[in-house]
Structure formats: structure tokens, C-alpha cells
Design goal:
alpha+beta, Cytochrome p450, five-stranded mixed beta sheet, three-stranded antiparallel beta sheet, 16 helices, oxidoreductase
């Protein structure tokens, strides 16, 4: 990317990412768009489809700012230099020792969930595995036990509000989630809860530059850890379950070598990345290929498309975990690469390992078809499998 733009702007191709045709086949559309053009414009902004452009933008926060929302978002909505100390604070909650200490509790959750699933009949890997596991694992980590059903109901309403396109409904759902968080904070401030050993309590005593965090910033951090991550974890498990069911050679190889699960799961999610886009806004004019973006343009980094770029991966659907790992963008790249990657990786490995240990075979449920998810998520909305 060049910082100075000296020649006229080439017309950026138009597209509509929320049209019924695109929503019916997001993955196929992104593949076709990426081959046809590096970027496309809609009323929502400009989408980047190719790996090189997405990576370059993610590594250039001076040009592609993350300050895209009126709501304060710690630290993912921050640019340098403000971003660095907040990111260091957030990273401290995902240290190896903390993830290792949490793992036995997450493993117990996964084992109990899988043990209770029926055998030989249809199981929806998203609704019956992904969502309950995501909620139970997250509440165990944050110390929010007892509100699992409330979080599941909120996830359903959040999806419905997003799909409706009703901004007032989405704002109400977001406010409802903030109240869930504030209720947890109020609990921690009572004498009998003040000594709880969990990240929620730790945030109440954390400091930045010697100052305690404001409640608004604590809410923002916890919102970032939960509101999106619950849906992301459920979607990721749906993708992995369907891949295993439809690639039984890979399934058997991972039964024989479960130590390969982390790399394998990353590759399955590269092939069908359910984490579609992140937003940026340009701070000045910038050229991408033959096209010029103006200062203030909204830009969408399309991770799902970039993760299938033929120029980097060859056949985007080919399963090559070791070969493709250096270029995999499932957890993003640059200063805003997902800080929760250690936690997410541990949870996914533990959940899939529990599935493989408790079954002899996972296969597609006969007579039932999976259903694709739609924006703002990719992957699958419904994944009917049979556990045997």
C-alpha cells in the first residue's frame, strides 16, 4: 500500500454484502469476489478480500484506524499509543499459567456435556454442543455461574436483532448485555463476594498507570470477552464438528494423535472461517492496487475471504495444517490479533478431545442437512451429526 495518491481514482466495483443472494452463500460469494476484484464498495463501506491487503491494513493502524464505533471498546477500538498499555493489561489475563489452571474445569464441563448427549440419533452440534459449552466454559472462567440460561437466551435475541437490521432493537440488546455485566460487578462489591478468585473480580482491583479502571472500561473489557466470544465459540465448534463428520480420515487421524488437535482445528477454521470481518476507518487517502480510498472511508477486513486466498493457500479447501499455519488469519493479525487466543484454543481442543474420546464415530446425520449461518457470523447455524 502506498501512502500518497497522485493519480485518479479507479472505480471500485459495487456489491451488496447483505443481499439475499450473498447471505445464501457467503463463502462462495467471497471466493468469487476475491478472484474478480481485490475490493468492493457497498453503502456500508469498502470490503477487502485478498490476504495481502487484509494483512497490510491490519498492520497499519496509522492509516486504518480501529476507532470506528461511538461506543468505547477496550482495547480493540483503540489505536496507538493508547492501545498498548490497555492491550498489555488484557493480555495478562491470558497467561499460560492461568489457562493451565482453568483447563481441568473446562475439561470437566466438556466431558459432562458430551456424556449427556444421545447416541445414534440427530444432534445439532451448534445448539446442543457449541452454545452450551461456550456459555458454561465462559461462566466458569469469569465466575458468572448461575446465569447460563440467561446468556443462552441473550445469544438468541442478539442473533435475531442483528439479522433484523433494526438498530433500536440491537441497541436495546447491547444495553441488556451491559446490565448483565454490571449486575456481576455489583455482586463482586458485596462483602461475601469481594474475595472471589476470578477475572471479573480481578478487573475491579486492576490498575492502569497507577489508577483503578473505571466501571465503563471494565464493562467494555468484559463485553469484548463475552458478547462476541460466546457466538464465536459456538460457531467454531459447529465448523469443526461438520468438518470431522465429513472428513472421517482426518477424524481418525486425530483420534490416533490428539496432540495434533490445536493445529488441525485452526486449519478447519481457516477453510471455513466463521469470524467474517473487522471494521476500520481510513485516516487519510490510500491506494490499494488501482483503487483509491478517501480519508474517512469505512473498511471491512474480510478474514473469511483472506483465509481462502488462492494466492497464498492454493486450493482454499485443501486441508494442510502445517503448511498453512504461518498464514492463517483465524485469530487476526497485527496489534489487534485476538488476545483470547490461548483461552479459545484450549477450550476448542478440550471440547473436541472430549467428543473424540467419548465416541467411536461422528458422522453426518442421515436425512438431515446442515444450515449455513448468515452475517455477522459465518460457518453453520445448524449442524446435524450422529454420535456413535
Amino acid at each position: 500500500m502506498n501512502r500518497r495518491v497522485d493519480d485518479p481514482q479507479a472505480a471500485i466495483p459495487a456489491w451488496e454484502p447483505l443481499s439475499p443472494e450473498v447471505l445464501a452463500d457467503q463463502l462462495g460469494t467471497y471466493d468469487r469476489q476475491r478472484i474478480a476484484c481485490a475490493l468492493a464498495r457497498s453503502p456500508r463501506g469498502v470490503t477487502l478480500f485478498r490476504h495481502a491487503d487484509v494483512v497490510a491494513a491490519a498492520h497499519d493502524p496509522q492509516t486504518f484506524s480501529s476507532a470506528v464505533s461511538a461506543r468505547r471498546a477496550v482495547p480493540n477500538g483503540m489505536d496507538p499509543p493508547e492501545h498498548a498499555p490497555w492491550r498489555a493489561l488484557v493480555d495478562s489475563f491470558f497467561a499460560p499459567a492461568q489457562i493451565a489452571a482453568l483447563e481441568p474445569r473446562v475439561r470437566a464441563i466438556a466431558d459432562a456435556l458430551v456424556a449427556a448427549l444421545p447416541r445414534g440419533t440427530v444432534v445439532d452440534a451448534v445448539a446442543e454442543i457449541g452454545r452450551p459449552f461456550a456459555v458454561r466454559a465462559q461462566t466458569a472462567w469469569l465466575g458468572w455461574q448461575g446465569i447460563e440460561d440467561e446468556l443462552l437466551a441473550w445469544m438468541a435475541e442478539n442473533h435475531a436483532a442483528t439479522r433484523s437490521g433494526d438498530t433500536a432493537r440491537s441497541a436495546a440488546v447491547a444495553a441488556a448485555f451491559d446490565e448483565i455485566i454490571r449486575r456481576q460487578l455489583r455482586r463482586r462489591r458485596t462483602p461475601d463476594q469481594a474475595t472471589s478468585d476470578d477475572p471479573t473480580t480481578a478487573l475491579l482491583t486492576a490498575t492502569l498507570d497507577g489508577q483503578p479502571l473505571s466501571e465503563a472500561d471494565i464493562v467494555s473489557i468484559l463485553r469484548n470477552w463475552t458478547a462476541g466470544d460466546l457466538a464465536s465459540m459456538a460457531a467454531a465448534l459447529g465448523v469443526v464438528a461438520w468438518f470431522l463428520a465429513t472428513h472421517q480420515d482426518v477424524q481418525q487421524a486425530l483420534r490416533d494423535r490428539p496432540q495434533d488437535l490445536a493445529l488441525a482445528i485452526d486449519e478447519m477454521l481457516r477453510i471455513d472461517d466463521p469470524f467474517l470481518v473487522n471494521r476500520r476507518v481510513t485516516t487519510h487517502a490510500v491506494r490499494i492496487g488501482e483503487h483509491e480510498l478517501a480519508a474517512g472511508d469505512r473498511v471491512y477486513l474480510n478474514w473469511t475471504s483472506a483465509n481462502r486466498d488462492e494466492a497464498v493457500f492454493g486450493d482454499p479447501g485443501a486441508y494442510r495444517p502445517e503448511q498453512n499455519a504461518p498464514h492463517n488469519l483465524v485469530y487476526g493479525t497485527g496489534i489487534h490479533a485476538c488476545p483470547g487466543r490461548p483461552l479459545a484454543t484450549m477450550e476448542l481442543v478440550v471440547a473436541v478431545e472430549a467428543l473424540l474420546k467419548a465416541t467411536a464415530l461422528i458422522d453426518p446425520a442421515p436425512g438431515a442437512s446442515p444450515e449455513r449461518e448468515t452475517y455477522p457470523l459465518g460457518g453453520w447455524r445448524r449442524v446435524p451429526v450422529r454420535l456413535r
